Each structure stands twice: as C-alpha cells, then as structure tokens.
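ZP: hey, is the magnesium ion complex queued? I don't see it on the tracker
AM: it wasn't, my bad. submitting now with these inputs:
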Amino acid sequence: MENREPILQVRHLRQYFGRKDFKAVDDVSFDVYQGEVFGIVGESGCGKTTTGRAIIKLYNITGGEVFFKGQRISAGPRDFTDAIAAERKATAQRIEDLKKAGDSAGVQAEKQKLKAFIAEQKKAMEEARRDQKDCNKLYRERREKEIKEEYAKKLQGVSGDQKHALEHERDKLLHEAAHENLVTRMQMVFQDPISSLNPRMTVREIIAEGLRIQGIKDEKYINEQVYQMLEMVGLVREHADRYPHEFSGGQRQRIGIARAIIMKPDLIIADEPVSALDVSIQAQVINLLNNLRKEMGLTIVFIAHDLSVVKYFSDRIAVMYFGKMVELAGSDELFAHPMHPYTRSLLSAIPLPDPDYEQRRKRIVYQPALAHDYSKEGPTFREILPGHFVSCNSVEFERYKKEFGI
Ligand SMILES: Nc1ncnc2c1ncn2[C@@H]1O[C@H](COP(=O)(O)OP(=O)(O)OP(=O)(O)O)[C@@H](O)[C@H]1O
Ligand SMILES: [Mg+2]
C-alpha cells in the first residue's frame, strides 16, 4: 500500500468554527492511496463530517493543507498568522533583553529579521490563497505541461503513421486536460439521505445537477448519463421522473451515489452512507460501493461511527476523537493491535455472534483523564509499527511497544 500514489494528502488540517475557535478538527494528517477504502470512525461530534466537508472545499479551512492528485487545493491562513504571532513575541523578548544590555545594533538587527520573517510568511499566505482559489486552473496548466513533456519524449525519433497516432493521442489528452475540473473529481455522499436530496426536484434533475452546473447542455447526453447512473446503482430508468419521497432510505442513498458518480469522480467521501438504514439494507449499499470501486477505479473515504461497519470494507482505518486522530492502521492490524485506549473502547463495543465471547465481553469506557498522564509531556502522532500510527507521548510509546512485543 505504501508504494502506491497518494491521491489525497491531508496535512495538519484544522477547521475551527465561530469567534471562539471551536476546534471541530484540530491538526489531522493522513494520506489516502489510489484505489483504497479509507475508513474514518469515531463517535458523534468528533469531526468526521467536518473533515470530509473540509476536504471537498465546502469550507475555507482554518489551517493546514489538502492536496488532491498532487495539487494543493486548500491551505489555511492560520499557520502563517500563528507563526507571525509567535515570532513577534519571541522577538519582543529578545529586543527587551538587548535593550537592557544597551545593544542598539542588536535591536535593529532583530527588527529587520522580524520584518523579513513577516514578509516571507505573507508571501506564503498569498500563495496559499492563490492555490485555494485557482486550484482548478493550476491543475489544468500542470497537466498540460506534463502531457506535452511526456509526448515530446515519446515523439523523439518517431515518424510517419506512428508520429501521427501519438500526436492524435496527445491532442486528445490535451483537450481533456483543458476541460478538467479537478474539484468535481471529489464527490461526497451525504450522511442524511433525506435532507440531502431536494424534495422538489425529480431524481433526473437531482442526478443531472452536477453536469448542468458544469455547463453541459446536451439533453440527450445528460439523459443517457442519468439512465446509465441509475442502472449502475441498481435502480431503473423509470425512477428518473419520481421524487425523493417516493423512495426508501436505501434507494435514496443509491440516488445520492448516482448523483456523485455521474461526475466521474476519482475519490468519493461517503459520510455514514448506511447509518440511517436498516441492517439488511446496509450490506447492499456497501456492496454497491465496493462494486463501483472496482468498476470505476474509485478511491473511497468511508466515514462511520462504528467499527463493525468499516471492518470488512476498509483497507485502513483512522480513529478520531474530539477533533484529533488518535490511531491509524491497516484494518486487520488495528483489530489485532489496538493501542489507543479510545480504539480499545470502540472495539469493546462491537458485539460478536459468539455467545461465549458475548458473556466475556466487557465494555471499556474511555476516560481521557484517567487513561493518560499528559502533565509532563503531551501526545504526538507517532508511527509505532510501519503504517501503524498512534497518538501518544514517549512514556505511552514505550509502554505500547512492550505490551505488543515490538
Ligand atoms: N458549521 C458549524 N459551525 C459550528 N460548529 C460546527 C459546525 N459544523 C460542525 N460543528 C461542530 O463541530 C463538531 C464536529 O461536528 P461533525 O459534524 O464533524 O461531527 P461528526 O463526527 O460528523 O458527528 P456525527 O457522527 O454525529 O455525524 C461538533 O461539535 C459540531 O457541533
Ligand atoms: Mg457526521
């Protein structure tokens, strides 16, 4: 898995709300590899939906960066303003000391240094703003350049029909690249299949909306696409002219999936797509997503509040607790070696169809104040085994290693 290209890179993502900076997501980092299912679990309110919405640019992120297909699509300003504030404070302290020592040349030098630092940060902030705003255009330009370079190499010493064929191939790719809309290559399937579908729109209108927003007007093409998507998600074309309320929960979620896949996404963020559904329907929707993943080569970020749903479906699983990521590992590894006490508490909540196990199963309640002593050293996100990360301090790190014989 590690050798694969990450399609999505989330770096120190922060999403704060309101004047008081409520930290819905606080310094979360992870990569998602091409073709995998990446599960995110955690209890209600821990910031799963906010993470998904921040990734697909429904918010201006507070801090950190998001890269999609190698292109920076979001970068928050707070990292720079924080850095400036910290540097101002440190400089003020140094200046005070220098003044006491009567070193006026030193004071001037500090002031100059601070000025240069601020200018540098502001430049980086400007670049962040540009990437955030113009990511589609920048990605198009990058792709065009890459294609031209690639084909310049391929065309060296080639002539005749072979040359024509290559040029034709190149021009086709360039045409596609010129019309590429990077941000629509990420789509979200929303948590609530009822409120996320406009009740006054027909299924046809709902599914076609993204194409229309892109400026596509060819009605025949749009209708064909709508029918094709309906069939792909296990509905039929006769459903196109009905309204969302005429469908069951599972069917509505299929409509939500059709609306997403019509944009030919590379990445789908499925936000608790089955938690509102009956258990019997849940497996159907998960199977549908899994089939689409294979057919369309999709990468899926699958959000759930319960580990049992993501276990069989996810290649890797990230566990979130109150805006932070506390553990991240391959699916089997996480179940075999759960280290963070919050992960253990989530695992202890999963019932198994084994009466003996059920008799012995003790629910572990996670109480952060009792589970950790962070008075001397706070936690950081550390790689304890290759690909297995856990939020811990040095003492915990050593303890986990011992416990698991690492
Ligand atoms: N637009 C907003 N303004 C202010 N606070 C918000 C906003 N959106 C989310 N929050 C808060 O951020 C926290 C995380 O919310 P989020 O919806 O991401 O949680 P979640 O993990 O998806 O929970 P659930 O499992 O219930 O869907 C919550 O405390 C929520 O109240
Ligand atoms: Mg949510």
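AM: back. The chain has a mean pLDDT of 94.
ZP: great, adding it to the tracker
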